[in-house]
Specification:
The protein has 13 helices and twelve strands. By secondary structure, the protein is of the alpha/beta class. The chain folds into two domains: 124 residues, Alpha-Beta Complex (Aspartate Aminotransferase, domain 1), CATH 3.90.1150; 228 residues, 3-Layer(aba) Sandwich (Aspartate Aminotransferase, domain 2), CATH 3.40.640. A seven-stranded mixed beta sheet has the order 2-8-7-6-5-3-4, with helices on both faces. Strands 9-10-12 form a three-stranded antiparallel beta sheet, covered by helices on one side. Helix 4 links the parallel strand 3 and strand 4. Helix 10 runs parallel beside helix 12. It binds pyridoxal-5'-phosphate.
């Protein structure tokens, strides 16, 4: 047995740790912001028959341009977008990786604002792109001034903004996105993985696309669409951005089965998204109840809540796990993150927290 470091691995990968959210079989998994509702039966049936049909032709390569899927994604997004504006891959993680393959790489840099999605810096290192962490304002916010100042100061090739931000849940104003865009000649990526959970009427970065050919809005079917296991992410941008993706993607990267499943799911977007309102309700319960238990819950526009005031995050994490509830220790001192579950799951979490609560023990 040798270890990884005995191999002639790239110097810049030596000593790094892989993405590692624990995958444990537990009754209540609230750790990776999945949609905790499964796909409605009727929709699942339609998706299965679409996959069953596609299987008959898997002797042939799939449509390399996934034309129908791009069309359906464009009409789901609206905002006057057409299939030429859309690109897709196996999860938005792959979309982000392709963006860095095309616009980042050795000698280039990407700026992000931690605490943010851990995969942003991991994809940077995988593609040999230098990761530049910039500071957020108080309350994890990024004001237009802060966005502009950080981008000007570091002059990166790519800027990653996450809206709403994971793991904090913080929303981001269009003014901050515009400020970052105007401060750079590089690519600005807005990761909108949780856009569907934002407050109703909150404008998306899609509204900023016209006239901004270096702006990329990344989305996923993993969260709101309850499709994490199917691996479908996508972006909307100027058609030239999609052309850049064509230079770096592997041919036929989206399997015929993935395309069939995603197209069938998009035909049912209304039913697929029906759970979003329920999940927002459960998130709002977390935002209301955690402070009553003596914790600080940060405002959240997504399907999870970051809460502080946890004396011993690791101990609390373990105590919950012992009760079959898995949440996330994101390594932020005094904090833990929990995904909004079904009503029953959220209740179980809150009851377990009440038993561990600092206000309880003080009494
Ligand atoms: C969950 C998540 C994604 C989704 O990644 P997929 O590869 O599409 O499953 C992307 N960005 C952020 C910020 C996320 O939290």
């Amino acid at each position: 047995m040798i270890s990884l470091n005995d191999l002639p691995i790239r110097d810049d990968l030596r000593g790094l740790t892989p993405y590692g959210a624990p995958q444990k079989t537990v009754p209540i998994a609230l750790n990776v912001n999945e949609n905790t509702h499964s796909i409605p039966d009727a929709v699942a049936k339609d998706i299965s028959s679409a996959i069953a049909k596609a299987i008959h032709t898997v002797n042939r390569y799939p449509d390399r341009e996934f034309t129908t899927l791009r069309e359906r994604l464009a009409s789901y997004l609206g905002h006057g977008l057409s299939r030429d504006n859309v690109w897709a891959a196996n999860g938005s993680n792959e979309v982000l990786q392709q963006i860095l393959q095309a616009f980042g790489g050795p000698g280039r840099s990407v700026l992000g604002f931690p605490p943010t999605y851990s995969m942003h810096s991991i994809i940077a290192s995988g593609t040999g792109t230098r990761w530049i962490p910039a500071e957020r304002d108080a309350g994890f916010e990024i004001s237009p001034e802060t966005a502009q100042r950080s981008v000007r100061e570091h002059d990166p090739d790519i800027v990653f903004l996450c809206s709403p931000n994971n793991p904090t849940g913080t929303g981001l104003s269009l003014a901050s996105i515009e400020a970052a865009y105007d401060a750079t000649g590089g690519i600005v990526v807005v990761d909108e993985a949780y856009a569907e959970f934002a407050p109703t009427g909150q404008p998306t970065a899609l509204t900023l696309l016209p006239g901004r050919e270096r702006l990329v809005v990344s989305r996923t079917m993993s969260k709101a669409f309850a499709f994490a296991g199917a691996r479908v992410g996508y972006l909307a941008a100027d058609p030239a951005i999609a052309d850049a993706m064509r230079l770096v993607r592997l041919p036929y990267h989206l399997s015929a089965l993935t395309q069939a499943a995603a197209i069938a799911a998009l035909e049912h977007s209304r039913e697929m998204l029906a759970m979003v309102d329920d999940i927002k309700e459960q998130r709002d319960r977390l935002l209301l109840e955690l402070p009553r238990l003596g914790y600080h819950a940060w405002p959240s526009w997504s399907n999870f809540v970051l809460f502080g005031g946890v004396e011993d995050p690791h101990g609390t994490f373990e105590a919950l796990l012992a009760q079959g509830i898995l949440i996330r220790d994101i390594g932020l001192p005094g904090h833990l993150r929990v995904t909004a579950g079904t009503e029953r799951e959220t209740t179980a979490f809150l009851e377990a927290m009440a038993r561990l609560s600092p206000t309880r023990t003080a009494r």
